[in-house]
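Weekly sync notes, structure subgroup
Attendees: PM, AL, DS (notes)

Item 1: joint prediction request from the bench team. They want all two components modeled as one assembly rather than separately. Inputs as received:
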Amino acid sequence: MDISDLTPELLPYLGQAAYFELGMFENLAQAIRISPDLDAKEGLSVVAGRALAKHQGLVAEVRRRGGEPAEVMAPFAPALDDFRAKTMGADWHELLLTCYLAGGLLDDFFIRLSDGLPGDVGPRIAHLLGQGAGTDVLVTHLKAAIDGNPGLGSHLALWGRRLVGDTMLVARSAIPAAAPPVDGTTATAPPTATTPGEARIEPVFTELVAAHTRRMDGLGLTA
Amino acid sequence: MDISDLTPELLPYLGQAAYFELGMFENLAQAIRISPDLDAKEGLSVVAGRALAKHQGLVAEVRRRGGEPAEVMAPFAPALDDFRAKTMGADWHELLLTCYLAGGLLDDFFIRLSDGLPGDVGPRIAHLLGQGAGTDVLVTHLKAAIDGNPGLGSHLALWGRRLVGDTMLVARSAIPAAAPPVDGTTATAPPTATTPGEARIEPVFTELVAAHTRRMDGLGLTA
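Output from the run, pasted for the record:
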């Protein structure tokens, strides 16, 4: 499925991805802060460092093109701040699951979109975002907690199912052509209309959800 | 002034320095969280990355010697957590000043102590901790705020003077031989007694305070 023509312009793409990774870093810093022990803190600091490296790599691409990172990220801040607030979770395990599932899904998504970027920047970003995110630490802590507590497992399964909706909305917002019509200019379209972009991106979203389901399965959670 | 024989054992040294840098990283993550704008967030993320790199470099030295980072750091966690709680500050500017002044002083201190470490680890750590910490970002934000608000300057001068005491206590705790007697076993010593270690480390502390004063001066604050 070639969706390269749906990839947004380079600077907005970089701005959204960079701000998303900064948010993941902030989530992980929060997870470090509320870690139950030093060993968890130490392991999570590695994951936080990887998210920060992704953010900084994307920011470097912005600068290379003469962009101002803060300006390029700014349009995406309100929606991504709102996403983070909604998906922060009520405790350490929910937050770890958010980092694992939303981080995994949106890294996959930004890698998929990078196909359509001009020049050699696409492969460079795919490499940057595809680097092992150190998330085995997240999986280890989550599995240990779930294995010892079936009630926690069903609670986290619910949280994971809720996360996927909010996370997919972030992905959808990255592709203007795939977003459902939301303003008056399209008011005359029949309510069931899908844009051509929306129809073409759908299989990509199906792939992303399938990978999400595999992550849930790997933790023993029902997606 | 050769204080190499006062340097603590290698693993405790690494544990204390590693946990201190992790705490600095957590302070910077908190500063990112409460940043007034995206530009500040972005600049601070670089400083946070440097603190994290220092932490991870020290942890790598622990692992190289077969140590468990969490175990090696654990004895220092209560005092350093207490130090962080006391020096976190009430707002963004106080927190930035803490990162700049306490970070600067204790990096200097751990570099000074690294002279006495065995083998080639000392120079390696001095290099790691001496790397530009990206603190020009902290200085830029603090100076901009102070220049525009003389009241903030005198408030932060007070905060800086208070910080130095708490920070020097952390340094002092790293050198058992230099710590003043605190328990019953030394109850028979005259109250004015200084240990030989304490007398010899004093000039080093004087140097650290002089560098602290230069940092305060650089910000236009009276130390």
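Discussion: DSSP finds nine helices and no strands in chain A.
Action: AL to compare against the crosslinking data before next sync.
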